[in-house]
Amino acid sequence: MAVLSFNEYMKTTIVTIDGWSSCGKSTLARQLAARLGFVYIDSGAMYRAITLYFIRNHIDWTNEEAVENALPNINMRFEHNAVSGQSEIYLNDENVEYVIRDLVVAEKVSEVATIASVRKYAVRQQQKMGVRHNTVMDGRDIGTTVFPDAALKIFMTADILVRIERRFKELYAKNPNITIEEVAANLEMRDYIDSHREVSPLRMADDAVLLDNTSMTISEQLDFALKLVKERIPAETTGL
Ligand code: DC
Known about the structure:
Blueprint: H1 6-9, E1 14-19, H2 25-36, E2 39-42, H3 43-56, H4 64-70, E3 76-81, E4 86-91, E5 94-95, H5 103-112, H6 116-132, E6 135-139, H7 142-146, E7 152-157, H8 160-174, H9 180-196, E8 209-212, H10 218-232, H11 235-238
Parallel strand pairs: 1-6, 1-7, 2-6, 7-8
Antiparallel strand pairs: 3-4, 4-5
Helix pairs in contact: 2-10, 3-5, 3-6, 5-9, 8-9
2'-deoxycytidine-5'-monophosphate (DC) binds next to helix 3, helix 5 and helix 9.
């Protein structure tokens, strides 16, 4: 008898959105999830929360043993905030949704996300979340590693200058001292590390659909994704 893969056991429907940093993955994923009545999971927030924990607790993440000892103390969950209408991440019962977006975390997160034990820990939690609900999950390796049998996989890209400008606007709103050069350097560094790491590097899954949103509006991107959903996922699952 053939052995079933993790995904074959699953009864839930998964849409994955992977791609480069600052491509608008979370904006699209959040809107798509809301439209389909699926749960939205921001897997990058999990790597950011782990990084925040390491920074705050002075964990030397170049030391394998220190990382292995620290990981069981990290509890992460997402909770829906009725006021913002968004799903927010909690680290050991503290809402860290905003603090994890800081450049202090952004500067270290790609490095932390290269660590094999960190990835194993995060992937296991992501898979558990996907077993419970129909889910739209965004990240870097969701279609390749976390849910290789997802019903629909989208891979997002956009021109690097457009991505730098988008991220600059987002960070400048919170910190007017930030410079475009800092943002560009951080984005380029993250692109490089994310796509060159040994474990689950960023790459487009063979069966993913490419979405280059360099000159697309948010509503055009949503229409693009909804069309794919209609083609690939039964209407009784999505209500479309
Ligand atoms: O999506 P984001 O910018 O919040 O992700 C933060 C970092 O986490 C990013 O530099 C790469 C890493 N990441 C990852 O390695 N795998 C994922 N599934 C999601 C994020």
